[in-house]
Amino acid sequence: MTALPLRLGVNVDHVATVRQARGVSYPDPVEAALICAQAGADSITVHLREDRRHIQDHDVSRLLAVSKIPTNLEMAVTDEMVGIACALKPRYVCLVPEKREERTTEGGLDVAGQLPRVREVCARLTAAGIEVSLFVDPDPHQLEACVASGAPHLEIHTGRYAEVEGDARAEEVEVIASFAKAAHAAGIEVHAGHGLTLGNVGPIARISEIVELNIGHSLVGRALMVGMAEATREMISAMRASRS
Ligand SMILES: CC(=O)[C@@H](O)[C@H](O)COP(=O)(O)O
Ligand SMILES: NCC(=O)COP(=O)(O)O
């Protein structure tokens, strides 16, 4: 299959993590988002966690007011978050699982285990004009449920891929590639993200059915060394080099 274009969504959560460490007003994730857009990012991801450990409600509103590229709001499947999304109307919402005590998102959303609820939330968000994505592990059982949910997009959780090495990593690429192919064949737009870095993005960027990567922690870390614009440009180059 001819490779579809590959977009970069930059997740600016951890710019806010540095700000929240001191409870001050800087660094500003919205300012970072504008720099990423200028450097070629296609969208901005922010994860409004229930515990508000990094991104705050006002960050999402300010981002939506000033960003010229789409916002992808990651959020848990709760009534509070659905209310916020329906009021703010980002272009995209990605439904993710959340545990208060976790350091980061540990797995994909169990869509199959709560299909009626996910379907109802997808319908409410869609009625508000929002395109919904589901953050899932590359498990065929979850794909069936994603199709049944009515969500037009899904994002493959690449956390396991990022954690393992050697043969296990090569196997994980196979699992992700066949899941992406099946999801694309089922008419779902396929995204991927979590734990991706300049060093490991290549094999994932090479999967032709994946059209968007959402990358945050490693890119923000790299930006401490080279700046947000350069870190964004470096990632776009690495993605394009693997795609061609
Ligand atoms: C859902 C996901 O994979 C990322 O957005 C990640 O959750 C970033 O936020 P945290 O680092 O707070 O987990
Ligand atoms: N959905 C994944 C994301 O937005 C970024 O994850 P990470 O690069 O911060 O691990």
How many domains, as an integer?
Answer: 1
Question: Gyration radius, to the nearest Å?
Answer: 17 Å
Please give the largest β-sheet: 8 strands, parallel, barrel
Order of helices and strands: EHHEHEHEHEHEHHEHEHH
Structure summary, number of beta strands: 8
Fold-level CATH name = TIM Barrel
Strand content: 15-25%
Overall pLDDT score: 97
CATH architectural label: Alpha-Beta Barrel
Unreliable sequence segments: none
CATH class: Alpha Beta
Subunit structure: Homooctamer; tetramer of dimers.
Family: Belongs to the PNP synthase family.
Function: Catalyzes the complicated ring closure reaction between the two acyclic compounds 1-deoxy-D-xylulose-5-phosphate (DXP) and 3-amino-2-oxopropyl phosphate (1-amino-acetone-3-phosphate or AAP) to form pyridoxine 5'-phosphate (PNP) and inorganic phosphate.
Subcellular location: Cytoplasm
What does this structure look like?
The protein has an eight-stranded parallel β-barrel with strand order 1-2-3-4-5-6-7-8, surrounded by eight helices. Helix 4 links the parallel strand 3 (71-75) and strand 4 (92-95). The chain has helices spanning 13-22, 29-38, 57-66, 79-88, 115-127, 140-149, 159-163, 166-185, 201-205, 217-226, 228-243; strands at residues 7-11, 43-47, 71-75, 92-95, 131-136, 153-157, 189-193, 210-215. The protein contains eleven helices and eight strands. The chain is α/β, with parallel strands linked by helices and 244 residues long. It is 49% helix and 17% strand. Helix 10 (217-226) crosses helix 11 (228-243). It has a single domain (7-243), classed as Alpha-Beta Barrel (TIM Barrel), CATH 3.20.20.70. The mean pLDDT is 97. Bound molecules: 1-deoxy-D-xylulose-5-phosphate and ligand LD2JLWAY.
